[in-house]
Amino acid sequence: MTEQDLRELKGFGSKALDEVRDKMAELEF
After folding, report:
1. Distance between CA 17 and CA 15 in Å, rounded?
2. pLDDT tens digit string along 1-29?
3. Measured distance CA(29)–CA(26) in Å, rounded
4. DSSP string computed for 1-29
5. pLDDT value of position 1
6. Furthest CA-CA distance within the chain
7. Distance (Å, rounded) from C-alpha 5 to C-alpha 7?
8. Cα within 13 Å of Cα(17), Cβ side
């Protein structure tokens, strides 16, 4: 795995986390 692969994976992870947070917020309210 190259450093770029790790960086892209990290970016994808944070994006997915944001989407999960948005969905949780929708469910709560």
Report:
1. 5
2. 899 999 999 999 999 999 999 999 999 87
3. 6
4. --HHHHHHHHHHHHHHHHHHHHHHHHHH-
5. 83
6. 41
7. 5
8. 6
Please count the residues of the chain: 29
pTM over the 0.85 mark: no
Predicted pLDDT of residue 28: 82
Residue type, 5: D
Residue 16 is encoded by which pair of tokens?
């997915």
* Assigned token pair, 29: 């309210």
Give me the amino acid identity at 9.
L
Instruction: Provide the terminal-to-terminal Cα distance of the chain, rounded to the nearest Å.
Output: 41
